[in-house]
Amino acid sequence: MAARAESAQGPATGEGPATGEGASRGARGAGRSSRAASSPLAADAAAMSDSPIMKALAQDHARRRELEGLVLDAPETTRILTVANQKGGVGKTSTTVNLAAALAMGGLNVLVIDVDPQGNASTALGIDHHAEVASMYEVLVESRPMAEVVQPCPDIERLWCAPATIDLSGAEIELVAMVARENRLRGAIRDFLADHAKSGAERLDYVLIDCPPSLGLLTVNALVAAREVLIPIQCEYYALEGLTLLLKNIDLLRAHLNPELVVSTILLTMYDGRTRLASQVAEDVREHFPEQTLETTIPRSVRISEAPSYGQTVLSYDPTSSGALAYRAAARELSLRTAH
To answer: Where are the annotated segments for Disordered (predicted)?
Structure first.
């Protein structure tokens, strides 16, 4: 009878349902197993959130919210900036046209003057600049009023451009024999702004001058005409060497031709946060030029490179891209600064 009772209840150490302390131990074991299984996923998620790609996405999202509907403050007087760097491929023309577009989209009146014979700034703004079009060549060499060559940008309101044509490639030779050859552009801009004011039109807030990648007479004219210099610097080692030479030439021009000229702004371009070199270059530039260097950096972006082939700036080509948002942030920062 005892044996039958034991059989009915199950053996003391058999596999019946777990109860009491055994059930508690089983639950704790299951919990440990669950945590062990989930911990690699949590680690992967944490690693992804710290990755350069996720940081860039988060930064773009924050910028998009900050810049939505932003109206920029107009300067007290027209600011004339020459965007210069004798080293090619540093994003000089891209910086000129995209900053101009960002300022115009912020409600400011902006004129881009293209004195690069390649005419890339004119192309990016959708401005016709074939050989028969009146351009900055006629302004500099033939003393034509600039008002006769300025064209509105078709995609962006409040943005105008004085285009360049291939004729400018011979302008440096023709300028050599002219009186006050270094002041030709300064005089043309002065007369244009005066006539613009007399006409009753809204004042221009910014004039951005795009230069060729050299230190010839066209670039000298641009530096003499400006009050400020904006230097785009590619985040690579060779860019630092080029910066030293450019600053020496600016010092010479300040001493002999334009004592008011200042390097007001340095913008880091083609920044790749995944590389130590880019971070090191940015750190070095900020250490040597803490007041001039913008906090905003322009990332490497396919959209920035693609936009000119469609005759557009990146702000009209893909306004939500990281490059467009970065240039808008840079424009806002530029508008809040004054020349040092």
So the answer is: 1-45
